Amino acid sequence: MLELTKEFLDQLRLQIEDGRDVELAAVVGELHPKDVADVFDALKREEVLYIYRLLDSDSRSEVISEMEEDIREELLSSLSSKEIAEDVIEGLDSDDAADALADLPEAKVEEAVRLVDDQASASEVLELLNYEEGSAGAMMAVELVKVQEDWTVASAIREIRSQASDVANIYTIYVVDESGRLNGRLSLKSLLLNASSARSILRDLKDDVEMVSVEAHESEEVVVKMMERYDLVALPVVDASGILLGRITIDDAVDVMIEDAERDYQLASGISEDVEGKDSVWTLTRARLPWLLIGLGGGVGGAYVIGAFDIENNPEMALFIPLIAAMGGNVGVQSSAIVVQGLASASMNMGNLAGRLLKELSVGMLNGLICSAVIFLTSLLLGFGWNLSTTVSASLLCVIVFAALFGAFVPLMLDKRNIDPALATGPFITTANDIMGLIIYFSIGSLVATWMP
Amino acid sequence: MLELTKEFLDQLRLQIEDGRDVELAAVVGELHPKDVADVFDALKREEVLYIYRLLDSDSRSEVISEMEEDIREELLSSLSSKEIAEDVIEGLDSDDAADALADLPEAKVEEAVRLVDDQASASEVLELLNYEEGSAGAMMAVELVKVQEDWTVASAIREIRSQASDVANIYTIYVVDESGRLNGRLSLKSLLLNASSARSILRDLKDDVEMVSVEAHESEEVVVKMMERYDLVALPVVDASGILLGRITIDDAVDVMIEDAERDYQLASGISEDVEGKDSVWTLTRARLPWLLIGLGGGVGGAYVIGAFDIENNPEMALFIPLIAAMGGNVGVQSSAIVVQGLASASMNMGNLAGRLLKELSVGMLNGLICSAVIFLTSLLLGFGWNLSTTVSASLLCVIVFAALFGAFVPLMLDKRNIDPALATGPFITTANDIMGLIIYFSIGSLVATWMP
Asked: For domain A6-139, is the CATH number 1.25.60.10?
């Protein structure tokens, strides 16, 4: 992988300044398109445009498909309609082209489309723009290789040759019936192994496996789960009547997987927008503020709970407030995280809500008993006295059990109502458990103060 | 996807009981191997073995490669050496076979290997067992299609046909020189497009791209990053002198990606072992206990911080303890999560530590000022008085700035010392920030009590 050093970038800038275009084109031409995209990420807009126009036509398209969305949008808005027509609509796979066009003003897209030679493929790209974002239809590319089941091997090979030039990776040859309905697949391998029997009918060579496909309106989550589950490198997309529309390749599914994982991770860490370290200070601040404000609200709530208790006559109760609050939050996050992951990987059987909660209850009890015993002995040894030690250890047990159940219950409930359960992991669980923990602690404290004065 | 209902499982159990083997084989035979593996996951050991022996030889191997590791280990330990030889060593791809054998006692493996017809491929599998777990070598399969650059198209097609029968998905044909050194690739597509010019030399048909490969000793993290970065479906593995050893396919890389994401997520949520909701109560308890004990330690530390302050004469200071503690933890987790993600995706430039911390300082200041202003006004409006409101808002600002810097600093430091930065996100950051927050709060409280009595 290319190590992007300051020296390398400075060298490029110098070559731009001096107009040493041949040299520059040679240096950049040796890089992998993904590396060029990274270089673009680090350069200024005019510099990007300068280098971009030195690339040959194939590389331009490849680099565009590798660029980060924001930088790509910037670059495309500087290009002419003719360049959009050639480098994007003609040069990219239909799914990447549609992604790129989605960010451009409609008038420019129309103008560019008019400049494309192959109007049929241009309108295929435009059609992809109609699918809802996040659906299988919006993820798919129309480029694929398909053959009809009643063809012979010889005619299939002829047809495949002509189709293959548009398709970057063939992976699988789809077999359809006369009306275009998907009804099987043929591996390149079996075609290669049977190339000598040119008269065989494809129907007899079709792979004898159940064909996995997805309807265009399904969500990208379904796509990713299917591809992961069945180890697919390409998933065919069909309409409601089974007509083959396109296919989704594994590289796009991997991108969605990574985005989902990052999103869940950020939600669990209390970050509400998709941000990266390189985003602006204001974007980063805004992404973090919601949880902080919820935390503030929780803190004020906590102040009221403590204020309702006679803290002035039992000031020693203050000592263990941080412990109780922290433990409630920690346990809640732990149990919600396990539920969220279980739901995401579909390994959790939701039919069995009661069983799930019973298990959380057991885990909570066990953890609670251990922690409660540890804190009781520690607190006694450190000389905090019987009353305080009893209060802390009894309330810790209650807090841990409550937080474990609550942490598991909330994401399960959200999921049942079709709300993203990952929302539960961050602010809500911790804040709710903080307050509930204080209520338990001070209630038990009052009881102990009354009974064991 | 198969919906695993209780009715379906009961039906299978009934068929096993009644010995209706033909019926049972037909029902299970219609399922995808992955679905059969899920069924096995839900059945008892004897039931699994019963159904397994009804499957045909191909399905047995496919199901084994799809099973969860613990269930697979259980099943394999019940099989005879002959079954291991046929269903595992001969039936699975070399990488899956090596994974499966790794769990078996050495004597049984040796016996099984002796029963394999093709001793050459058996010893290839055994060799894979020598690579260190988590290395590219341990991930790769030796099955691949390779041709020599000085061959003609005709001889290549003949050779590929004979090699291809062992390889589930060809993806790419690797081109090597006479000594076996990888020096290019040939797509099935270009072979198909050039099949008519049988006399052409492969050297002239080779794809004109830089060949991406990985050395066998590299870690799986490197493999995953490369495959993700360059959108590869297969990555060739070479030794130090460039000899082609095997290849890693995208399905295995995806598995590693998902495991890594789950691990990071669990660490951020304070879970220290790789657990799933269906694990035993004791496993789940043990995975959560470490953070809880660290949290307990932090809580006791917090008690000492509060005890050092004259809480008896300023009991109102107790009211905002939960707020200060919670905010320190929250901010710390947020800023460490962004750094951990940046490091994982390699988008963060570590050369620039000072710049990174300066940015965290800005974000912390901005968030701190907003939260501090909000709490000052709220607290005054709610009648908590000037002294307490000043103390809370001033310390909140300090706590937020400190926690943001500390949360970013710790994972950066860990990464510099080659320790997994994700370790920082859970227990350490929150506990350290809790305590630091309390120290700041009570120090400022003492100052305010002295200056504004």
From this structure: yes
Both structure tokens of A86: 């050639």
Taking an 8 Å cut-off on Cβ atoms, the answer to whether A292 and B330 are in contact is yes
Q: From CA A371, how far away is CA A330, in angstroms rounded?
A: 13
| Residue of B211, B292, B339, B381 to mutate, interface with A, max A Cβ within 10 Å | B292
Q: Which CATH number applies to B6-134?
A: 1.25.60.10
The answer, yes or no, to whether residue B62 has pLDDT greater than 80, is yes
Would strands B182-187 and B172-176 be described as parallel, antiparallel, or unpaired?
antiparallel
Q: How far is B157 from chain A (nearest CA, A)?
A: 8
* Domain residue ranges of chain B, discontinuous segments joined by +: 6-134, 145-250, 281-451
State the nearest Cα–Cα gap between A315 and chain B, in angstroms.
6
Q: Measuring CA to CA, how many Å separate A126 from each of A104, A116, A134, A142?
A: 13, 12, 17, 11
**Nearest beta carbon to residue A322 from set B270, B321, B371:** B321
Kindly determine whether residue B371 and residue A292, on different chains, have CB atoms separated by under 8 Å.
Answer: yes
List all residues 6 or more positions away from A226 whose beta carbon is below 8 Å from its beta carbon. Answer: A212, A214, A232, A235, B1
Q: Please indicate, yes or no, whether the overall pTM of this predicted structure exceeds 0.95.
A: no
Cα separation of the two ends of chain A:
70
Type of residue found at B440? I
* Homologous superfamily of domain range B281-451: SLC41 divalent cation transporters, integral membrane domain (1.10.357.20)
Q: Which of A50-59, B107-116, B198-207 comes out lowest in average pLDDT?
A: B198-207
DSSP reduced 3-state for B63:
helix
Q: How confident is the model at residue A251 (pLDDT cuts 50, 70, 90)?
A: confident
User: Which residues sit opposite A175 in a β-bridge?
Assistant: A147, A184
Q: Which CATH class is domain A145-249?
A: alpha beta
Give the helix/strand (H/E) hosting B148: strand B145-148
Q: What is the pLDDT of residues A353-406, one digit of tens each?
A: 677 788 888 989 999 999 999 999 999 999 888 999 999 999 999 999 999 999
Q: Which long-range contacts (CB under 8 A, 24 or more apart) does B425-429 make?
A: B425/A269, B425/B264, B425/B267, B425/B268, B425/B333, B425/B336, B425/B337, B425/B340, B426/B267, B426/B268, B426/B269, B426/B270, B426/B272, B426/B291, B427/B270, B427/B290, B427/B291, B427/B294, B427/B295, B428/B294, B429/B329, B429/B332, B429/B333, B429/B336
Would you give the distance in Å from CA B422 to the centre of its chain?
12
Measure the CA angle with vertex A177, ends A173 and A179; round to 5°: 120
What the block records as the tokens of A365 is 């009890």
* B33 neighbors B66 (Cβ within 8 angstroms): yes
Reference B145, options B234, B276, B83; nearest CA is B234
Q: By mean pLDDT, which of A148-157, A345-354, B355-364 is the weakest? A: A345-354
Q: Could A321 and B306 be called an inter-chain contact, meaning their C-beta atoms sit closer than 8 Å? A: yes
pLDDT at residue B345, rounded to an integer? 66
Do A325 and B327 lie within an 8 Å CB cutoff?
A: no
Could you say which DSSP state residue A227 is in?
A: H
Whether residue B53 contacts residue B80, with contact meaning beta carbons closer than 8 Å, is answered with no
ipTM score assigned to the predicted complex: 0.76
Taking the CA atoms of A235, A239, A241 and A244 in sequence, report the sign of the dihedral they define. Answer: negative
Asked if A269 and B333 come within 8 Å (Cβ–Cβ), the reply is yes
CATH number of B145-250: 3.10.580.10
Is B219 in contact with B253 (CB distance < 8 Å)?
no
Please list every residue in chain A whose beta carbon sits closer than 8 Å to the beta carbon of residue B230: 32, 34
How close A102 comes to chain B (CA, Å)? Answer: 22
Token pair in block for residue A407:
């942490």
Whether residues B321 and A307 touch (CB distance < 8 A) is answered with: no
Chain B partners within 8 Å of A296 (Cβ): 323, 327, 371, 374-375, 378
Rounded to whole angstroms, the Cα distance separating B234 from B236 reads 7
Which residue, among B399, B410, B409, has the nearest Cα to B434 in the 3D structure? B399
